[in-house]
Design brief:
alpha+beta; 24% strand
Length: 156
């Protein structure tokens, strides 16, 4: 999977490149468990890796310092086992629409006025070949801020 940290509102996104940031496996942090990105579920609090692709991601308790929280997991379109990889651009467009649309229901405040931002994990061409057909939306604190509680219904 690839994680994209889009700068959707002209905010300073936590990025290493031209408006995007992606994930990879990262060293374990105390209190974290390393697990497959394919196993992410709504409500999982995570540490954001710092490279473009990831096979594993560090989960942690939401009461521990963390960088993001999975706010939605949605199926890609197409999502059939025999469907061809639609391409990163199409998947990112689907992800932006789904993740921004689901933001208010999860956080409890409007995306435009929130102090939080949203990004997403999308399948790579390789993970697509392995059956990956989900987009994981990730709500995160802006800049280098860390979260120390769940953002679910936080109105932040």
């Amino acid at each position: 999977m690839t994680i994209v940290f889009a700068n959707l509102r002209g905010r300073t996104a936590h990025a290493t490149g031209a408006g995007a940031f992606a994930v990879s496996a990262v060293a374990l942090i105390a209190g974290c468990s390393n697990s497959s990105v394919l196993d992410l579920k709504v409500g999982d609090c995570i540490q954001l890796p710092n490279t473009e692709t990831a096979v594993t991601i560090d989960r942690t308790s939401c009461s521990e310092e963390h960088r993001g929280e999975v706010s939605a997991v949605v199926k890609t379109n197409p999502n059939g086992a025999d469907d061809a990889f639609p391409g990163a651009s199409k998947l990112n467009s689907q992800a932006e629409e789904a993740c921004v649309s689901s933001f208010t229901d999860y956080v409890g405040s409007d995306y435009v006025t929130s102090s939080l931002d949203v990004s997403w994990l999308v399948p790579t061409e390789q993970s697509w070949k392995d059956g990956d057909r989900h987009i994981a939306c990730v709500v995160y604190a802006q800049g280098d801020q860390k979260l120390t509680q769940s953002v679910k219904d936080s109105n932040l």
